[in-house]
Write a structure and sequence with these properties.
Blueprint lengths: L2 H57 L16 E7 L9 H18 L3 E7 L1 H9 L6 E3 L8 H16 L9 E9 L5 E9 L3 H11 L14 H83 L1
Parallel strand pairs: 1-2, 1-4, 2-3
Antiparallel strand pairs: 4-5
Length: 306
């Protein structure tokens, strides 16, 4: 076997092995995204109803609370960025990081300092490489987040919201994550969790309740105490839903990237196989030519001796 043919055979074996790996990863991601979709569907109604409850308390009372009250002159905002712990997901992490950068620039243009909190090793690596300050970070669970993870993340954020800005607190809480729209579409977006926009919340509540008008409530012991109790639940549920959306989006992006890699491997194998066949045919033709040439030379030599 010629050197050229051996090179092609070796490359075909290598690409075939890679194709098996990418195909397996595609199948794993496909099974995980189905589970993540179910979790998103299960968590969304709870988050929507909590938002509806907070809206009811805020619109039904005149209580001044960090959950619903805009600061007169906001000076600091917290930004929670949700990325992935792993790569091989196309532009998933880079898109959400880009959205976070755009939000950061917008907040700074408004004269606000930005405290960054990050979920996922990709985001941590991005900020660490650029030597940017990160208040806190969490890794190791982005593929399959739990409500306990959401509570862990929410705790320092809630504490920062409840503090005065002079003591390191924040006036606003923003979250940047990837919304799962469909298997083919995932959108990086930013959302302000605190203070809650009552107009937006009311619109979401009306949609979730199919246009039903919010009833009037009596709050015991007081509206402020109710909001104090709802604040951590609201933040935790919204973060949990965002984590699940991000996980579903990451698995969908991984599936799409691995399918593309598998398809490319198949195309490369076909191309290499054609080149290997051409090289083999060229070798056979060369061998036949050498045999014919040798036979002719031998015949000429024999005829000359006669």
């Amino acid at each position: 076997m010629g050197a050229t043919l051996r090179v092609y055979k070796r490359r075909i074996r290598s690409v075939t092995a890679t194709k098996k790996i990418t195909k397996a990863m595609e199948m794993i991601a496909a099974s995980r995204v189905v589970k993540a979709q179910r979790q998103v569907a299960a968590s969304t109604p709870y988050a929507s109803e909590l938002t509806r409850a907070v809206t009811a308390v805020a619109t039904g009372s005149n209580t001044q609370h960090p959950l619903t009250t805009e600061a007169e002159s906001p000076v600091r905002a917290a930004l929670l960025l949700i990325t992935s712990d792993r790569g091989l997901a196309g532009g998933y992490s880079s898109n959400v990081i880009k959205a976070a950068e755009q939000l950061t620039e917008r907040l700074k243009a408004e004269g606000k300092e930005v405290d960054v909190y990050i979920v996922g090793r990709k985001g941590v690596s991005y900020y660490s490489f650029r030597e940017r300050k990160v208040v806190d970070s969490w890794t190791g669970f982005t593929d399959s987040p739990t409500y306990a993870d959401a509570k862990t993340i929410a705790a320092p954020l809630i504490e920062a919201v409840q503090k005065d800005t002079a003591e390191g607190g924040v006036d606003e809480l923003h979250i940047v994550f990837t919304e799962f729209v469909s298997m083919m579409t995932q959108t990086a977006l930013d959302d302000r969790l605190l203070p809650l926009s009552l107009d937006k919340a009311a619109a979401e509540s009306a949609e979730s309740s199919k246009g039903e008008i919010l009833p009037l409530f009596d709050f015991e012991p007081s509206a402020e105490d109710v909001l104090d109790a709802l604040l951590p639940r609201y933040v935790e549920s919204r973060i949990y839903n965002a984590l699940l959306q991000a996980a579903a989006s990451k698995h969908a992006a991984t599936r799409r990237a691995m399918k593309s890699a598998t398809d490319n491997a198949e195309d490369l194998i076909k191309s290499l196989s054609r080149l290997a066949n051409a090289a083999r045919q060229a070798e056979i033709t060369q061998e036949i030519s050498e045999i014919v040439g040798g036979s002719a030379a031998l015949a000429d030599a024999t005829a000359g001796s006669d």
